[in-house]
Amino acid sequence: MKKLTVLSGGMGGARFLQGLLHGITMGALPGVDADAEVTVVANTADDWWIHGLKVCPDLDTVMYTLGDGIDPERGWGRRDETWSAKEELAAYGVEPTWFGLGDRDIATHLVRTQLIDAGYPLSKVTEALCKRWLTPAWGDRVRLLPMTDDRVETHVAIADPESPSGRRVVHFQEYWVRLRAEVAAETVVVVGIDDSSPAPGVLDALTDADLVLLPPSNPVVSVGTILGVPGLRDALRTTAAPVVGLSPIVGGSHVRGMAEQLLASIGVEVSAGGVGRHYGPRSAGGVLDGWLVDERDADQVADLEQSGIRSAAVPLMMTDHDATAAMAAAAIGLVDR
Question: Whole-model pTM?
Answer without folding.
Answer: 0.95
